[in-house]
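Appendix B: complex inputs.
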Amino acid sequence: MTVKSTARARKKAAPGVPDKTSAGSAAPELVQLLTPEGDRVEHPDYPLTVTPEELRALYRDLVLVRRFDAEATSLQRQGELGLWASLLGQEAAQVGSGRAMRPGDYAFPTYREHGVAWCRDVDPLNLLGMFRGVNNGGWDPNEKNFHLYTIVIGAQTLHATGYAMGITKDGADDAVIAYFGDGASSQGDVNEAFTFASVYNSPVVFFCQNNQWAISEPTTVQTRIPLYRRASGFGFPGVRVDGNDVLACLAVTRWALDHARTGQGPVLVEAFTYRMGAHTTSDDPTRYRQNEETEAWKAKDPILRLKAHLEKEGLADEAFFAEVEAESEKLGLRVREGVRSMPDPDPTLIFDHVYTEQHPLVDEERAEYEAYAASFEGGEHH
Amino acid sequence: MAGQLSIAKALNDALRKSLESDPKTVLMGEDIGKLGGVFRITDGLQKDFGDDRVIDTPLAESGIVGTAIGLALRGYRPVVEIQFDGFVYPAFDQIVSQLAKMHARALGHVKMPVTVRIPFGGGIGAVEHHSESHEAYFAHTAGLRVVSPSNAHDAHWMLRQAIESDDPVVFLEPKRRYWDKGEVGEDPMLPLHSARIVRPGTDATLIAYGPMVKVCQEAAKAAEEDGRQLEVVDLRSLSPIDFPTLEESLKRTGRGIVVHEAPVFLGLGAELAARLTERCFYHLEAPILRVGGYHAPYPPSRVEETYLPDLDRVLDAVDRALAY
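Resulting structure:
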C-alpha cells in the first residue's frame, strides 16, 4: 500500500496550525484530476483510469441527479413537498463517492445525499416521502445498503462506525461511508465516531462534504484548520479533494474504501465543494452570504467541467447529450407524477411499527383512536 | 440454578447465558473487560468470551449507544452498559431520537435489539451523578421498553428476556440492591412486561419497582403489626405498564400509593395515578398518593436518606390514604 504511506507522509509533512483563512481556502493540498476548464490532470497518489463509457455514465449521473434535485425544489415551491434540502453544486462529491462503492459497501447519509442514493439505486421517490410528510424515511436500508436519512447532525457517523465494527467482526471485506458536513464536524458524535473507528481500526470512510456553509455559518465558525487535518489528531489519514471534480472524488474515495476494507482503518475525506442553493427551501442565503462568492463557484461547476472534458476530447457527441437531456425530462416527469400521486398514509400509520412486538399501550391508543374516528358520520375523521 | 444468588451474580449469569446462546450477542461498555465493570456485573466474561464480544469502549456514552445501533443494523444484538445513571445523558439523543425511532422510521424494515443496562438509584453514599432515577425520560419515549427488576430471580430472567427482545430495552438495575441475595428459579415464570403481586393485602396497594420494592415490603410488614394488610405490587415493567394487574388490585383495596426514588413531579407515579384514577374511579376510597424524591437535584450523600422514600414515609402516606 504505497499509496497509503505516501498520503500519510504527505499529511504529516503538512505545516502546523495555519491562519484562519486557510480553513476556507482550497489550496494547497487539494486533490484534483479534472480542472474547472475540463482538462485532465494527474495526481501521483490517486491514479485513475476511466473509459469513455465510464465518463459518459458519470456525466449522465450528474445530470440526472441535478434534474431530480431541481424537480424536488420545484415541487416544494408548488406545495407538493413540505421541505427540500437541495444538493445543487455537490453532485460530483456525491456521485464520485457513490460510484466508488461496491455493492456490499454501505452508505450512511445525512438528509442531502440524493446523489449517493441515486448511485445506490434507491428509487428517488423513496427519498421524497419524508419531505412530503408521508413517512419519516420508510425505505428498507438493507435493500440497497443505503441507510435512512438522518437529520440530527452527525448522529449517523456513529451508526456507520458501529456497522463497520460489525463488518470487522464478520471478517468481511466490505466498507462503509459515513457522510456528514462541515457543520457536523463540530459535533461530539462525529468526534466520538472518529475515536471509535480509530481505536477499533474500523473500515469506515468519513466523507465530509465541506460545502462552506452550515445554514448561515461559514466554516470559520467550525474550525481554524482545514477539516481534513482533523484526522491526524485521531491517527488516521485525511485527504482534501476537489468536491466539484467527480473524477477526483471517485479516485480518492475508491482509494479510501480500499484502505478501509484491507484492514488499514478509517480515512477522512474532505470534499471541498459549495452549496449553490439555500440550506433548505426554508432558508434565505441572501441574508448571510455574498452573491460574488456564489458566482465564483459557478465557474467551478461539476457538470460543466465534465461536459467540457467530454467535448474537448471528443468522447461524446450531440446525440449523447440530447439523449441524456431526454432522459432527464423523463425522470422529471416521473418524479412529478410520482409525488403528486403519492397517497397520504392512513392516520393509523401513527401506531404502526412503534415496536416490533405487541405493546398494550399502543394497541389501546390505536383502539381508542379508531373508536373516536368511527364515531363521526361516515366513520371517518381526518 | 439452585441456591441463593446476589442480584449482581444473577445478572452476570444472565449475560453469560446470553453470550452462550447467541453468537451475535456482544457486550459493550466502559471498564467491562478485565475489571468486570465497576460493579463487577461483567466479571470474568471477557476472559471467557474474548475482547471481541465483551468490548471495552472509549469513554463516550453517545459513542457506545450510537455504535451499538450500527452493530444492530449489521445483525448484532448489543448489550451496552452505562457505568452510572448520571452518565447516560450524553447518549440521550442516540437513545431517544435514534435507537427508539429507527424501527418506525424504517416502517418496520429494521429492528433494534439493543439493551441499555443502567445501574440506577441512590442510597449508596455516592458522589453526585451516581444516584439518579431517570426512568420517566425513557418511559416517556415511544419505541423504548423500560424495565427494572427488584430481586435476583427477576434480574436474571428479565435481563435474558430483554436481550432476546427485538425492541430496544432500557434495563434499570437497582444498584443499592446489587448484593441482595435471592433464589433464581429455573424459568422466568412471567413475561417481561407483567407486574407481580409480591404480597397480598386488602387495605391499600403499594406500587413500586426496583429498589423501592424492598422498602414497600418492609412497610407492609410493619403495617401488619398495626393490623393493616397492605398489598405490594412489583411493577417490574415501566413501559409498557401492566395496568390490568394494578386495576385488579386497586379495585379490591380501594387505595393506592406509588413509591419511587425519582422526583414525584411528573414521575412515573403521576401517570399511574392519572390512569388508575380514570380506570378505577368508582372503586377508589382515596386519591392515589405518591411518595418519591423532591424537586431538587439529588442531594449530597449525607442527606440522601431525607430525599429517599423510606419505611416511615411510605407508612405516612398509608395513614393519609386510609384517613379519607
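The first strand of chain B starts at residue 4 and ends at 6.
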